[in-house]
Amino acid sequence: MKKQLKEHFSITKKEWNGLVVLLLVIALVLAAPYVYQRLHKDTTINEKAFAAAVAQLEKANPQPETTITTGALFKFDPNKASDADWQKLGLTAKQAQIIKNYTAKGGRFRKADDLQKIYGLTKVDYARLAPFIIIDKNKTEPAKVIELNSADSAQLTKIEGIGPAFAKRIIYYRERLGGFVNKEQLKEVFGLDYVKYAEIKEQVRVDARRIRKIDINTITFDQLRLMPYLNYKQVNAIIEYRKEHGNYAGMDDLANIAIIDAQILRKIEPYLVFK
């Protein structure tokens, strides 16, 4: 029995050496964190040195002032003030540029409150500037009313609120349309919304006798395609109906085309002739 137990629990020299190596490896793994902490101590921050470094960095890269130096305020007309004037009044270069863009596009300040419409101008800025705003309302000549169907781009820019960009759009739309039948059609010009129309409507008039008429019985597809009130399918339907049924005698014939409704017919009727 003893012999069997001895044989069961006895180990060879090779196995003993392996066991010793395993124990050493376990001991090293357990001791490694403690050895690392002793050899790599955290560096203590020198607060004075850190503060000095921050101060030096701020000096090298100064931050913009959060408050605006107002300087000496003076009376000014916002319609005539230059970029330099606005900046002397305490506005930033960006704010001055926004105002310049507004006036360059035909914008005009008719009363002091209009300055509040400028994007980027704060209530504080307006409250500070308002007492010094003087708008010259005296005009040596009465404002001229511009006829839309005969005016060139230079004449259109004389309309308060219309700059070169809007003038080009109005002329482009007028050419596609064949002329304006009424001034309300200006609201169909790209970018010219109800607010802008209300601003300029008293400065314009329309002579409908100047519109360019379309002979619906001879016009080609490409020519009729320019009419802004008709889409591609409607233009094609008009041409195909004419080929199939012959010349149009009047608006009643056009009403037979299913994809052209009464609203479209009312819009195009002033421009059509039937020969």
From TrEMBL:
<dbReference type="InterPro" id="IPR010994">
    <property type="entry name" value="RuvA_2-like"/>
</dbReference>
<protein>
    <submittedName>
        <fullName>Helix-hairpin-helix domain-containing protein</fullName>
    </submittedName>
</protein>
<dbReference type="GO" id="GO:0015628">
    <property type="term" value="P:protein secretion by the type II secretion system"/>
</dbReference>
<dbReference type="GO" id="GO:0015627">
    <property type="term" value="C:type II protein secretion system complex"/>
</dbReference>
<dbReference type="Pfam" id="PF12836">
    <property type="entry name" value="HHH_3"/>
</dbReference>
<dbReference type="InterPro" id="IPR051675">
    <property type="entry name" value="Endo/Exo/Phosphatase_dom_1"/>
</dbReference>
